[in-house]
Amino acid sequence: MAMAETKKSAGSATVAAGLREAFYAAVIAFFMFVLLVGVKTDQNIHNELVLVPRPYLLATVVLIAAAVRFLQVVYLTPFLVAQKTVDAGTGQLPTAFALRFFSKPNLVIGLVMAAGLLLFGNSLQAAVGPYWGAYVGLLRAAAIIYVIAWVIFYFRSFISAHSYSLGFTILLVYPVVMVSLFGFQGSLKWVDNFGIQILIYVMLAWGLNIVVGLAGLLDLGYVAFYAVGAYSYALLGTQFGWSFWILLPVAGIMAAMWGVILGFPVLRLRGDYLAIVTLAFGEIIRLVLINWREVTNGAAGISGIPKVSFFGVISFNVSDPNYISKVFGIAQSGAYYKIFLYYLILALCVLTGYVTIRLRRLPVGRAWEALREDEIACRSLGINTTTTKLTAFAIGAMFGGFAGSFFAARQGFVSPESFIFLESAIILAIVVLGGMGSLGGIAVAAAVMVGGTEILREMQFLKQIFGPDFTPELYRMLLFGAAMVIVMVWKPRGFVGSREPTAFLKERKAVAGSFTKEGHG
Amino acid sequence: MSTAPLLDVRNVETFYGNIQALNGVNVSVSEGEIVALIGANGAGKSTLMMTIFGTPRASSGTISFAGTNITQLPTHEIARLRIAQSPEGRRIFPRMTVLENLQMGASLDKLKYFDEDVEKVFTLFPRLKERLTQRGGTLSGGEQQMLSIGRALMARPKLLLLDEPSLGLAPLIVKQIFDAIRELNRTEGLTVFLVEQNAFAALKLAHRGYVLVNGRVTMSGSGKELLADPEVRAAYLEGGRH
Ligand SMILES: Nc1ncnc2c1ncn2[C@@H]1O[C@H](COP(=O)(O)OP(=O)(O)O)[C@@H](O)[C@H]1O
Ligand SMILES: [Mg+2]
């Protein structure tokens, strides 16, 4: 009797707290969104700027904020706390919830739904009309994602044990799978927009990782080296007709040289001062590209950049005598070139990753990491910090240059617009999100962030829900912001926050015990 | 001493901006010696250590090591002459493992003698062997100090500089570390220049000692003499028997 009383009063206390919190959330949401959502600028028939108030939309947003906060305080938090106690008792704390969510019956439901909607989704969409059809598309996507997540969850230990070889195998067969699923023409989008686009960012982020993640030098102007590489190939390729295979190393060397040129003046700088100077450097390069019209053709950019050939043996230009479809006697398609480019950038990524892993075990790479930790200690151990920093800038820049020349070859066109600060920021964000220094984490972050923005482009069905003015790809910065907040709240050191040691004694078994106790430093 | 000292600091003055931290310091350390420099907080002990390593630079005076004038050499080149230090605050690499820290210490020889030398460090500090794959930053203070000294030893130094190795450590650990230093000196003939506030332990360990007050050497003598000196006793030892 008494216990029921206390339970009841505790319950009403929680509800009171929930209402209070919901009120605060509503007030905060109101002030946050009153200008962002509450009014909209528009043009009237006289071409004047007018403010259109949107009180209902604002009210909806505020109410949603309040409701979510209320539910969180009253139901979610007590539920999680109670669950924690229960799970601590059963001894499966971290996975108990996931085990319930990814149960076998749920998988059957997910599989049936995914299969059903894959088979009959289109006819269902046609039957229910575009409005409900949008939800059918959403449901199909959710079912597929659930099934994939289920598989990942159940094989998580296998995946984490073999992550590198598994990831590499998937990347290797990816174009083949896409072509067999969607045909040559249909695979273009998946190979080019997703595959190549993601891999370019993986390569850039791995290159920047050498400077920021390993050597600890905060570089906000990395895109400058990307630009140097792109323009090196664009200019030399169009002017002299040199092949990509000669210009790739040239572009790398040019970028590395610029890396050293940037490195010298900033040798003594660290942290925020370094960041500001590198940011300025990135902008200077871009402004030079815009204003040095005689050479760079200014803002109009350079077009007609030659395609890459397969070492001169097979060409991807329809007019050439050794055009691929003539060589093999197959139908003409633009997809061959994209697939070739995909494997090219994959090879470049592998090169970058391999060099990074090797360097980390070599004295210079280890010196980078030591430099990041303590510059003074490094010097007193006999390490020349000047050359160590310059090699970090040069090698990081070199990979940026490689990626740049690839970018130019892929687009066939470069302009300064591709090398704005936002690009540097995105690359840096990928490095930070993935966990500085961790190649695997960075690759996952690149896939999620770049793939995510591409998926947004695919979500045209959202137009049905939010109206025809809704352009999903414009929300990519929202995606970046949300990912940043989530990762930084849950894993402040990035997706893979722990640093992998590079040294082991020969008798590894002897230390296995202490290895498991290791803390994340 | 018949031969020239290994380390010779002559009339060295060091400034931080306008503040004069060292005022004509003369100190010498001969091969095979343990020399202690004692002094109160802010006397300039760490400044002297760092000046020997070239950051900050001495504004006048000369520092020579094994016959070479090192006063104007870059820090990393001074280290290459085989001077190693365990600096104030230990300055180990916190995110790197114990083993990696030790490898960083062996950078000079590109790890040529690593396997051999690391065993010696483990004999000296068995605790480090147990913590091989632990990150430096997660070690206890005493373990960090051991790692800092171990890392310095990996460079195969002719001269080891130690800046307050006992700072903030429990008496038992201090004893362990000082025993290890004495052992190294006796078996390997390692030359050690030691800076300490813990004057009692330092002077007991050292062959010779200097007293630094406000950037000047005010007294010098054998460890025993200084320990017996009434002035030293009054200033650094009474009530300070750590
Ligand atoms: N980087 C610095 N900048 C300015 N003054 C410093 C700096 N380092 C030390 N000092 C000053 O130099 C004097 C000697 O310091 P220090 O050598 O650290 O003394 P000790 O190691 O004997 O405690 C102190 O007065 C201290 O304030
Ligand atoms: Mg000091």
Automatic annotation (TrEMBL), chain A:
Its main location: membrane. GO terms for cellular component: plasma membrane. The chain crosses the membrane at residues 21-39, 59-81, 101-120, 132-154, 166-188, 194-212, 217-236, 242-266, 273-292, 339-357, 390-408, 420-453, 473-490. It is a multi-pass membrane protein. GO terms for molecular function: branched-chain amino acid transmembrane transporter activity. Keywords: Cell membrane, Membrane, Transmembrane, Transmembrane helix. Residues 19-111 form the High-affinity branched-chain amino acid transport system permease LivHM N-terminal domain. The keyword Nucleotidyltransferase does not apply. InterPro entries: ABC_transp_permease, LivHM_N, LivM-like. It is found in: Cell membrane. NCBIfam families: PRK11301.1 (NF008450). PANTHER family: HIGH-AFFINITY BRANCHED-CHAIN AMINO ACID TRANSPORT SYSTEM PERMEASE, HIGH-AFFINITY BRANCHED-CHAIN AMINO ACID TRANSPORT SYSTEM PERMEASE PROTEIN LIVM. This is ABC transporter permease.
From TrEMBL, chain B:
The keyword Nucleotide-binding applies. One of its GO terms (biological process) is L-amino acid transport. InterPro entries: AAA+_ATPase (IPR003593), ABC_branched_ATPase_LivF/BraG (IPR030660), ABC_transporter-like_ATP-bd (IPR003439), ABC_transporter-like_CS (IPR017871), BCAA_Transport_ATP-bd_LivF (IPR052156), P-loop_NTPase (IPR027417). Belongs to the ABC transporter superfamily. Keywords: Amino-acid transport, ATP-binding, Nucleotide-binding, Transport. The keyword Transport applies. Pfam families: ABC_tran. This is ABC transporter ATP-binding protein. Residues 7-239 form the ABC transporter domain. It comes from Aquamicrobium defluvii. GO terms for molecular function: ATP binding; ATP hydrolysis activity; branched-chain amino acid transmembrane transporter activity.
